[in-house]
Amino acid sequence: MSGGDIAGLIAAGVFAVLVALLAVPILKLGKVFDELRDSIRTLADGATPLMDEVTATVSTTHGQLKKVDGIAANVSDTTANVSALSSLVAATVGSPLVKVAAFSYGVRSALSKPRNRRSGRRSR
Question: Which residue windows are transmembrane per the record (predicted)?
Answer without folding.
Answer: 6-27
